[in-house]
Design a protein that fits this description.
Five copies of one chain form a homopentamer. The first copy, chain A, is of the alpha+beta class. Chain A folds into two domains: about 5-285, CorA soluble domain-like (Beta Polymerase, domain 2); about 295-350, Magnesium transport protein CorA, transmembrane region (Methane Monooxygenase Hydroxylase, Chain G, domain 1). The first copy, chain A, has eight helices and seven strands, in the order E-E-H-E-H-H-E-E-E-E-H-H-H-H-H. Chain A has helices at about 50-60, 75-85, 85-95, 150-160, 170-205, 210-240, 250-315, 330-350; strands at about 30-35, 40-45, 60-70, 100-105, 110-120, 125-135, 140-145. Chain A has a seven-stranded mixed sheet, with helices on both faces. In chain A, helix 6 (about 210-240) packs antiparallel against helix 7 and helix 7 packs antiparallel against helix 8 (about 330-350). The longest helix of chain A has about 60 residues, at about 250-315. Chain A is rod-shaped and about 120 Å long. Chain A starts with about 30 loop residues before the first strand and ends with a helix. Chains in contact: A-B, A-E, B-C, C-D, D-E. The interface between B and C is large, with 63 and 62 residues.
């Protein structure tokens, strides 16, 4: 989580708008997949060049071009020229270390999202930046690597399910954002399960692993909140936007996603509160157990110390110790010692020290 | 409290507006109970179908249809068609994992509430989502299962008590919200009693149960606050709403409920502060008691250690130890040891270590 | 502090506006005391009925009716009719579990205050709700039981001291609020003294009583803040109000009280910070003392342990132990042991462990 | 710091505007020092009466009257009459327990400041209230006792240094406020030095004195912040004021002081953060040292316990103990014991317990 | 970090606008380096006097004068006269203890920045104040000492790289601010690496060094946040400014830097959260290890205490102790003691105390 800025310093000093890819994962070749559709037609293809994308776009109501892989700046210069994108937008797309935001460039909207997935081990969160360009009759999406989160939407377009084919690019953009946000819920569910599990172990098992798990979960929640907070602002901005690119009938849908982000933030805060409480319970349980142990051990020691003193007394070599020569002395001492021990134990119990 | 999102992931990928019921408790058959009334007439019935509900509605000033049970999506599609509800509203009604909110769809208002009840054991809180649709001459309420919280209002309508029969659907909606909010007070009373009880036990009994009870109460308060905060916004929105569906004379009543929610939030915060203070007192009491025990035991050990050393000295087998052959040596040593022990105890007492 | 809602649940289910008294303390008979005055006339009386109050009101510039005792709802229905009060206002007056607020009903203002007094033991705070109705030529005040906080104002009216007789009901209302707010300062003074006292004891005396006193004071401050915060909003609302009932020349006076409430909140926050600091000092002092004790005792034990070992060595019964037969052995051992003990003490001191 | 309200209760019950001096320090006789000046003339005098002050004022561009000593209310009634001051303003001037604020009375501005000085011991902060009345051609300043903070400004007026003689009363007021605010920096410097000093001692010396010093500094910072926060609001109010008494060219200067107050608040917050961190380091250092000590002592005890057991074994008086009669037994036991001790120490070291 | 105000007190009492340099580092002679350029021409020189700077400025589209070294006030008086700067601006430039801000003086904008660099040891942050004056056709930058952070921009101007030569002084100002902000990322990267390193050591190594490192990093982050927060406000102010000096096409670039500052603040907060969590883990690890040690040692002591008592018993010198004369007694005791020890260890293990 701390290696956000690893390669950003490589960019220091370059003039703004210089296209340098900041990020780790690459694909061999950027892949352009194009969906061109309207209420009654639909076309799907893999384009070889930006030029080809453009040709398809000419005779469709909505064109969705998805680009996987950001490592080749020249491709993006082409895109910039063809779609009239501001150099700073191109720079932002390539720099995958951005916080979610939306910017209105009149001819198009630029939306930066954080797509989150659980890693294979289901223990960590994998974050990927997705950039959306929403124009009057097209949507561009830029991803660092191919992923299957958008597949249900592709299916909906292919099969004409729901209202997606009857709406414009704003609705498509909404659908894409909605999928990203819905996935947060899936992650939160998984985290919620781990928190529930923790709730049970925290009382019985006080290993250091518990503390580390609590802090690991806390870290993930901080990480998510960092992504969702700006998401919330972004969606509030979109639904209240006076851009002509967002149709009036799309607003309730955006409001719906907006409500989801608020819900997510609420849940994150609740989880954080629960984890904080769990840490308290854990610490209190650990110190409780420790105290229990120390108390019992100390009591054992305390009971034997006077007894040891007594046997020491009769181990002395004084010439004149009358007790030593009495027949009843040895068994008598045993009785005294047993009474003493029992008395002390009884006293400790009554004082609730045991 | 952590299983909010259990089934939500089942919905991921479906187009928005798909009617899937998210929630746990079901009734066998959705029940429609219809109240149609005006200042001077009143009719009550159990409807078999949406169509039947509609027929009653035609000739009444206010029609209140209450639906218990949300598991059958086809019923809701009917409702949607008959009352012209937006697909997202229907989706929200079925998805019982929402935060309270209000939405103005011009022809009707959509209000989502969280109804809370103590469980049978009186130890936990049971939360149920209630959706209200407030139209020009009707109110729809959707509940997950039949409950008796609305019964007093039913009685008021039946008997014509209060001003409910002389007012429109906005007043009915207010009355329903008021009942839900008033029930929060009842829950807070019960929690308040448990906190008072804790205040007494926390000083004397330092068991781990106390910590768990404190954190349990804290969790319930977090849970309630999460429901009441958006409730407050919701009511503020309603009373300041410029919707024609909310009459001018209903506004003071809504302001009244709004004040109640603020009061509830205040009380929740006060309780949280009290619990935080109690946790501090508890921890301080535990460590105090522990210290007391350890101190006494350590003092006992410390007093005997020099004595044991002394008796050890006269247990040595040196050939030339003049004291061993003195008559007064043994009783003398006893006197020395008693003086030493008393002196140490006196010293510890003066230092306030005992 | 936790029994706020004790009887509130008794009201659940009743239609709003039902007049039920929620509160504890009652007087046998509600007492109406009426002050009717103007710049040059003044009349004081005890009225037997609402009707009588009204007669006096007719020919005075300002009429102040104070009602002590809220248990008889029928009286309040009379009042409501005569003065044209909204049912919710009457309900609020009787329900003494409200947070301070102000409401503008055009013909009159409704102000709810929390009057606070130290209990007889000077250890706790006694809270009483006071409701004000400020009309064009009258002020109504409702108290739960007779009290003497308003007596100085009564004297001022009687003697025509200050500017009270030359001003309208708004000034009278200001004067009443001012007295209530000024009394908060008196309570804070008393709490301030107790905090000062604590500051001295906290360092020397580490009893559990200190922690409880700190938390008791914290509780009182939380309680006060809960009352003063809405008071501040209330006064801000009044001074910025565009109601014709508040004259322009009364505004600076309201601003003055408003400043006082801010000052009170500031002081409460400062006290809370001081108490938090004191708790830290207390905990640090307790653990410091404990450490001191444990350290000294442990050092004593540690010094004697090797010595006890040594005397044990020469208590062994081996046949061939050459030292046992040397004349100098016994005194030599004493010298060795003393040197060892002194050396260890010296070492501990140098390490600053003593 | 807690005796703010000591005498305030003396005022409870009096009508507002009653002139009672609340505060501690008095001078024998109020002193009026008058500066009357313009771009090309300057006059300085000590006035005997308000009347005399007024005479000087008549023929000067700017008149600055400074009053030291607030104990004689009759003087202030004179002032009130001559300068047309509102009774509440006079009351505020005499009541030296106010938070900084500014009020616009059209003909004049009323500004309340908190002047702070280090006490002689340089350990505490001494707070004095200064009230400013800024009129069209005069400035009145009220202090509780004579002080020399304003002397540099007096010199500037006398010598005509800077632009003060060429500007109106608003600039003079600015200059006075600036001096007060600049003095906060001086105090913060001193506190900063003490914090730096603490940073060094906190790691080595863990006395209770350190905790007390940290909390003392924290208290002072809380005290300062309480004065500076309203100061910031006050200056923001002044610079954005639409009063005709504040000239346009004075605004950048007020903005400059405003920036200073923000800077001071920033520094206070930073210091508080540093102190909080230091407290953590201190606590961690204390517990670290304690642990170190306990660990070493416990290890010593632990090493000797088995040895003492062994020598105890050969101190037993059994008739048939073959070892006792072997020549090599005694030196052999020594070797065993030394090996055991070394082995345990080695084991503890390897486990990093030493 | 605490010596901010060291020399500021030297200024107290001087009239505002007095030019006194507050700061530590000086260069021998202030250095003026002048860049005069336009789309198609470029000139670079080292000026000897302000007059010379001015001459170059006359025939260039944009003139950038960078001044290193602030110790000679007379130079700044010259500058003030030539460029018509307000005395407070000059004072602010010389006083290097300012928080970042922007001020609009109509003819020019005054921007104060904090430039941050890692010290040579890479452990601390070195802060330098940079003041910018942005006029219609010139930019002045004032630095305390020569540095190379602006060198990439100089190169871009020299080589005509990027769009800098085609834009006005507003773009140059943006580029300078951008470089300063980008450098914060570089510092955060370095801090991020140290935090990552800490994350590994914190679990294994519990030295006091870890706590100090955590607090050191916390201090640096507090320090950075203190600089970046006002930077954020400053940039928000600039991009929303209605000054004619900021061209419309520069706004997206300023918005970009603004986003960067938000990102930086986000990262700082995340790092602070991580450090807080690490401190918790550290404390929990330390106390865990300590408990482990104490537990093992206490168990050893506890096991031997009864054994030592037993051997003490048979070291007693009673005349009548039948066991002493049995052949099997000595080996029998050994067996009993071994069984006892093993039994206790087994019991402790089952109780999970070991």
């Amino acid at each position: 989580m701390t290696n956000h800025h690893k390669k950003r310093s490589a960019k220091a000093g370059h003039p703004p708008g210089t296209l340098i890819h900041i990020g780790e994962r690459k694909v061999d070749q950027p892949i352009f997949s194009v969906f061109a559709y309207g209420a009654d037609h639909f076309e799907e293809m893999r384009a070889a060049s930006v030029e080809e994308c453009r040709r398809v776009k000419a005779h469709a109501e909505v064109t969705w071009i998805n680009i996987d892989g950001l490592h080749d700046p020249t491709v993006f210069e082409d895109f910039g020229r063809h779609f009239g994108l501001h150099p700073l937008v191109l720079e932002d797309i390539l720099n995958t270390d951005h916080r979610p935001k939306t910017e209105d460039y009149e001819d198009y909207l630029h939306v930066v999202l954080k797509m989150m997935n659980l890693t294979k081990s289901k223990r960590d969160i994998d974050t990927e930046q997705v950039s959306l360009i929403v124009g009057a009759d097209y949507v561009l999406t830029f991803q660092e690597r191919p992923g299957d989160l958008f597949d249900p939407i592709r299916d909906r377009i292919r099969l004409g399910k729901g209202r997606i084919r009857n709406h414009g690019p704003d609705y498509l953009a909404y659908a894409l954002i909605d999928v990203v946000v819905d996935n947060y819920f899936a992650i939160l569910e998984r985290l919620g399960e781990r928190i529930e599990l923790l709730e049970e172990t925290v009382i019985n098992d006080s290993g250091a692993a518990t503390v580390r798990e609590i802090h690991h979960l806390k870290g993930l929640l901080i990480h998510m909140r960092k992504a969702v907070w700006p998401m919330r602002e972004l969606l509030d901005g979109l639904r209240k936007s006076d851009s002509t690119l967002i149709g009036r009938e799309t607003v309730p849908f955006l409001t719906d996603v907006y409500d989801h982000t608020i819900h997510i933030i609420d849940t994150i805060e609740t989880y954080r509160d629960l984890l904080a409480g769990m840490l308290d319970i854990h610490l209190s349980a650990v110190s409780n157990r420790m105290n229990q142990v120390m108390k019992v051990l100390t009591v054992i020691a305390t009971v034997f110390i006077p007894l040891t003193f007594l046997v020491g007394v009769y181990g002395m070599n004084f010439q004149y110790m009358p007790e030593l020569h009495k027949r009843w002395a040895y068994p008598g001492l045993w009785i005294v010692m047993i009474l003493l021990a029992v008395g002390m134990l009884f006293f400790f119990r009554r004082k609730k020290w045991l």
